[in-house]
Write a structure and sequence with these properties.
heterodimer, A: alpha+beta, Ubiquitin-like (UB roll), FAD/NAD(P)-binding domain, 7-stranded mixed β-sheet, elongated, B: about 190 residues, alpha+beta, Gyrase A, domain 2, 6-stranded antiparallel β-sheet, 5-stranded antiparallel β-sheet, 11 strands
Chain lengths: ~1000, ~190
Amino acid sequence: MSTRLAKQGRLIDRSKQIDFTFNGKRMQGYAGDSLASALLANDQMMMGRSFKYHRPRGVVAAGSEEPNALMQLGSGDRYEPNQRATTTELFSGLTAKSQNHWPSLEFDVMAINNKLSRFLTAGFYYKMFIHPRPLWKHLYEPIIRKSAGLGEAPDNELKDPDTYEHFYFFADVVVVGGGVAGLQSAKAAALSGAKVLVLEQNNHWGGRAPVDGGTIDGDAPEVWIEKTLDALRGMKNVTLRDRCMASGVYDHGYVLGYERLTDHAPGQGGPRHRLWRIRTKQIVTATGAIERPLSFAGNDVPGVMLAASMRDYVVNWGVTPGQKVVVATNNDDAYRTALCLHEAGVEVVRVVDARDTGGGALMEAVREKGIRVELGRAIARVKDGPRVTKVAICAQNGEGGAQEEIDADAVAMSGGWSPVVHLWSHCGGKLNWDKENAFFRPDPARPPLGDNGEGFVIATGSANGNLGLGAVLEDAAVAGAKAAECAGFPAKAVAAAKGESMTEAAMEPVWLMPAKADIKLRMKTWLDYQNDVKVSDVQLAAREGYESVEHTKRYTTLGMATDQGKLSNINGLAILADSLNSEIPQVGTTTFRPPYHPISMGAIGGEARGEIFQPVRKTPIYDWNDANGADWEPVGQWRRPFAYTRSGESRHDAVNREVKNTRENLGLLDASTLGKLIVKGPDAGKFLDMMYTNMMSTLKVGKCRYGLMCSENGFLSDDGVVARIDEDTWLCHTTTGGADSIHAHMEEWLQTEWWDWKVYVANVTEQYAQVAVVGPKARKVLEKLNAQAGGGMDLSKDALPFMEWRDGQIGGFEARAYRISFSGELSYEIAVAASEGQAFWDALMEAGKEFNVMPYGTETLHILRAEKGFIMIGDETDGTVIPQDLNLQWALSKKKEDYLGKRAHLRSHMADPDRWKLVGLETVDGSVLPDGAYAKGNGINANGQQNVIGRVTSTYYSATLGRGIAMGLVKHGPKRMGEVIEFPGTDGKIFKAKIVDPVFYDKEGEKQNV
Amino acid sequence: MSNPVTATNGAAFTGIATVKDAGLQGMITLRGDLASKTLQAAVKAATGAEVPGQRKVSLAEGGAAAWMSPDELLLLVPYEEAVAKTAELAEALKGEHALAANVSDARSFFSITGEGAREVLAKIAPVDLSPESFAPGDFRRSRTAQVAAAFWLQEDGSFRVVCFRSVGVYMFNLLSNAAHPQSAVGAY
């Protein structure tokens, strides 16, 4: 059984007991436990079921590389699936559930897949479920999704109540990893004066050294670690962060740090995770190494663990996974586990060393304890079951015959070590194959390169392929000093601490145990625990022609799980290389990509949630609108009232009311969102003549002109009214959505093409609250305001004619009045200072009462303009429409030598007389055409589709006319006036519409010009 | 005529720092040749401040000039004087190619005071706000979370933040969120 030991456990506080539950069962652990160590202490060896075969699985590792012990944590709105028990710190009230089983962990119906494993080989889905195709969606996929998979997805109706944030930080040197190598590097870099940030993913410093032993500067590693931490804490230029994992290295010295603030202390308040967005000059990766499993049959049975991780459980948390342990190894390090277990009073029943020659001093030390060590031997198989009960031993150099079966309840395995090269590799750092140690290690001659062509990542310690404390510390001191030097600080040699550990004999690569294991064994020999990929799967992929490691990965799913193959990759590609009769370095690795370890979506989103999920742009009249029935519509990031609904009134009714009232009485539109760009300078007129298709340089001061803008490809991009303010100043109105983009468009031309033209542009959109005062009584209300204020600007037809503007006072407000109309009614657009916008609106509403004033929204705006046949950018245009399509030839200057779009309009396709052109559309029965409907043509096209001859671009119910009106683009439209064409709807109904003039209302334009 | 109002109407929040609506502030966008003696004199006359260097703000009694780009300054003047000062600038720069526009009402203006002020901004702006890198008189035209913003550090250790008026409420909520009382980073 796995149990708590009486002694040991340097990270736990036995005086602080913590209650938690696992699958509803109450358990106890200690402060400092991980969930995994606490479960082991409660004899909970089995922690989940596997992905595909639903085999019982237990914890294999003790850190972020853990593939098996994935849990569903919490409940309700704090529920999270797929959380690693090994990286979850125990806290009071923690609730964990194992996943991927039904009905229970102990009895899982889907374990039948285990019996079917010979049918569930690599590529099974591709081969099996391709035919018949309809079955995939309705039968196969739902069943497979139920049987395969990890934790259950959270309820999509629930919102995560926790908060998250980002933090931008800048450093000269970022040291990743707070083990002895990281601390030594940090110290060396900091002594040069560099600003150093050290990131440690765990809540404790020092990495593996305190577990692995040896001495540093003559003391136990803990002593040196504490001393060094104290020294670093005392340095102003050093920042230490624990529980903060560097998840990725990106170009230009960008590092993401994932800080877990309250995972271990829920209810503490404040953000749960903080994403550090770090810019640095140099990065030192002191990320250590990860032990590799050995590939033998049953290497996934709960109780089979990595040897060093088993040591971690004993030393760090005072937990032993078993009472009778078999150690299997191909290197000397695993002997440390044997010693550690022995010292803790756990029986080590056998050390099985695959090497014929065995190990060195460590092996001798183990033998001296009276532990039986067998050389050239292997584990043939571990008996299947919910935990280890029997282990069969055989010769390594054989097929697995002549087995000796021994009783054991745990197996510690070590297949050698792999440096954690992920962060080194994220930006393209290259690796060399180290034959002696059988691992990939960073090639210092080929680091990831920064903008200056120099390397910006330095790997050190065991992440750099160094084994043994002495070599690790020496390498780390050099790396730290070099990083500071590369970051621009004076070179300073820093003496490394002196590390001493027992010398080790050479390891021997063992990719399969026993070396010639037969197919029955290979089909029970796991490479990737989390995705249930076996040795036989990779071999099958090779036989089926998969040569590239990247393809094999995707075909077999090796290394594609949430652990990204931290344990399985090297073992898998060794099997692949062997199957292809190739060498490991020739097969190469798959690509290492961030994040190193999954990070929360919340951390990525940062503060963006709730009311600050997105900025909502608000006009100065927003609050009033909101309080007065505004039915909001998003327009870019603005919110504009679609209509102002009254109680008991539908949207449609509200719109009809607003339309009629504006035509008959007085309407107010909050038009503040319209873009307003000041264009000024001696060359401003020339510039605007290029920007607009029509002439703006000749516009007289005090006057307005409607203008069109095209892209250089000739397509309509924006429109609006331009006002000439003074000799060299114009004010250009843009569409709401165009304010920023047209400003940028102008700046781009000024900065990149016409940089010598003297023109300045300023975006003053938000300086003004702009109110459209519209309707037959518009002048009356403004004159009333002036009368109340004892005077103001003359708003008569003669003093302020149509398409002119004036500055002055209206109702005591400093205002600029434009006599422009997008509705066909008498209309003034009045701009006042944004800070006074609400007050001005209030004054208009008050004074307008006697004229039956009503605010109107964007839908009424649209209907009013459609009744007048005015086009709308974004309705009549969609990026493929040119002014000629909309019969706007009158706005294309023939006098100007050039303007943006002019040359494009000469292209044959643009000048094609078959282009669809704007017309009005009137349904025969008065109904409203569906928006976007296509007009039916004759015959079918090459794809067998109905030919079409036009489409609806705007369609509304006109309350003014009491019928549906629409505009559309129709082939040869203007020449087909009076013809009736058909628009099939999506509901089977066919709409018949007559082609008419697009101006439905007041064709002579008398109403606006009074 | 009426009382002009800000977008956030005097709002304030205190956590690791205090975030406050800093009220109406006269602001003038000035584009022109920053090396011009005429422009420099006009800036001095309008604000009392010198033309600042790159990424700096020069602060004077009752006014300031901040560097927005190689040909753009943000001038701070009392709100009530913004219209008149804009006209004065235009007059003084008549012979030059320049543009002065009153943008006082296009903006929201906030102060961040207290110990956590640097961290509040460092959570939302991609700027090195450590004391060794960002000192009084330093100025950035940058981004805070999802909106454009400019900010600088005053002599007294407090920040001033400028953004567009339409996102004033967003900015206040954003700054308040970043100033959550239990969110101190402890990085500086």
